[in-house]
Amino acid sequence: AAGVRCQAQAGDMDAHYMRRCVELAWTAAGHTSPNPMVGCVIVSEGQVVGEGFHPKAGQPHAEVFALRDAGHLAENATAYVSLEPCNHYGRTPPCTEALIKAKVKEVVVGMTDPNPIVASKGIEKLRNAGIDVRVGVEEALCLRLNEAYIHRMLTGKAFATLRTTLSMNGTVINQIGSGADQPGGYYSQLAKEYDGVIISSDMAKATTLPISREAGAKQPLYIIIAQGEGSKVHIPFLNEESASNAIVLADSPVAVEPSGVSVSVLDQMNLESILRLLADRGLCSVLVDFRDAGGVLVPLLSKFQEDKLVQKVVVELSPVWVVSPGPSDLAFGGSQSFPLKNVEHKEVNGTLLLEGYL
Ligand code: AOF
Ligand code: ZN
């Protein structure tokens, strides 16, 4: 019985260290594409002696940072990694070699790497070097961490999440100040984790997007869909400096103001070709802003289910009640919104109840 308990505890510790790897990996959310987010923890005699994560494509991998942190204590230690260590020369040398050189005794892997140039070869290499390798600890968590990276690797398309924001009475909220998109709000947090945000040119014209002025701040790339626009598109939320934060995808040649925004003319304006183009540019994930519910995004999304082009949906329920003089005024402006106070929410079987005071 003592033996059984000991094993159970070892299992718990495995899960514990792997969860720490995932937590470390998340700190680089939004920065690593086209690479995955990866975290690594080195454990020796029950103590964490090294930690690391992959900060950005082109920089060293998680294992390298963790091994550096551990120094000579890595010898005979166990390395936990949320993704199978790589075995190839990419922008950086193979992590398998670094682990072998550091003389770790054991490697615990969250999930195998779907990248065809790695795909289990890293694990094989470690085993051939006499290192014990266990695979699949907290696998679900590791799969969730890199859902976008995995999707791009397997399909050649960006992972797409459809996003909308509703008032409590079910109207779409698409204006800054009306309960959505305040700087520092939920959405600006979410946008930081995505590589790109798709919006229609109508939305681009009508809203102020939270482009941060902070130097070095992580911004998603804004992908503006212009269809049937004529020859000119003006995008007021951009200026000359922030022009590189956006690209325009159009169905015919257009001049964009400010100049400096790159324009691609697509033969076929459909979601499939857009998601492929974004994946080719190194974007793993994209948030599709569907608040412009009557605009050009509707035909783009009409077949998304059939073609499995959208993987996820995010709906924000904003604690405001919107009143407008007429239904047509709901589109962009003309309506008044009343924020609620002392908001509480309850959840029963996925149904969310929100209540608050006017
Ligand atoms: C790891 N640890 O932290 C990461 C891995 O161009 P490179 O050298 O950065 O290689 C990129 C590939 O390496 C990437 O597509 C994925 O297969 C793997 N990423 N592997 O062992 C890490 N970021
Ligand atoms: Zn590596």
TrEMBL record:
Cofactor: Zn(2+)
Pathway note: Cofactor biosynthesis; riboflavin biosynthesis; 5-amino-6-(D-ribitylamino)uracil from GTP: step 2/4
Keyword Lipid metabolism: no
Keywords assigned: Hydrolase, Metal-binding, Zinc
Top-level class of the enzyme under EC nomenclature: hydrolase
Domain of life: Eukaryota
Tagged with keyword Signal: no
Enzyme Commission code: 3.5.4.26
GO biological process, one term: riboflavin biosynthetic process
Function: Monofunctional pyrimidine deaminase involved in the riboflavin biosynthesis pathway. Also has a reductase domain that lacks catalytically essential substrate-binding residues.
Name assigned to this protein: Riboflavin biosynthesis protein PYRD, chloroplastic
Source species: Triticum urartu (Red wild einkorn)
